[in-house]
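A student in our group prepared the protein record below, which I am reviewing. What it holds is a sequence and that sequence's fold in token form. My question to you is simply how this chain folds and whether the tokens agree. Do not assume that whoever made the record got everything right. I have pasted the whole thing underneath without changing anything:
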Amino acid sequence: MFTGIVEELGHVTAVETLDDACRFRLRGPVVTEGAKHGDSIAVNGVCLTVVDHEGDEFTADVMAETLNRSSLGVLTVGSRVNLERPMAVGERLGGHIVQGHVDGTGEVLERKPSENWEIVKISLPADLSRYVVEKGSITVDGISLTVVDAGPDYFTVSLIPTTLDLTTLGLKQPGDPVNLEVDVIAKYVERMLGDRLSSEGATAK
């Protein structure tokens, strides 16, 4: 489990295309400290498994399903990426509960800079809109953010200078894809209410 608090801005050092997957080599001095085979590291919000680790770089295999459901497929050598290690038991939950399981991708639609922050508008797939509410949480490229405005096919977030300086959202431009993970609690509530309503409907008959 992750918290959506990005630990460092790393970058891709190598990409190997396989038959039905890709193998990425990524540099991140902070997240590779003490890393070992089998550990998890979130890359732009996608939970990946460390296959190999040498110095301040690690290798991860990305299956076709992940490439199809996320924006990792557009990464090339030199691409900047948000990196986060899993939360250790007993640590503070600085963001919100993030699984590293991408629900879909959005696209940066607009950026509105101001003196102390920047408003970013991002497209929202229709099947995810019901999970996104004003002042709720959403994960964008692995970053835990608060929704400012939630529309039927978009949402906006307000980014402080720290987020702009230390994550990929400071680099994204209109047209760039981003990974989205909605609040898992909302999905569980929907499922439980759906089961309950179905049960009550069957009883009523």
About this structure: The chain has a mean pLDDT of 91.
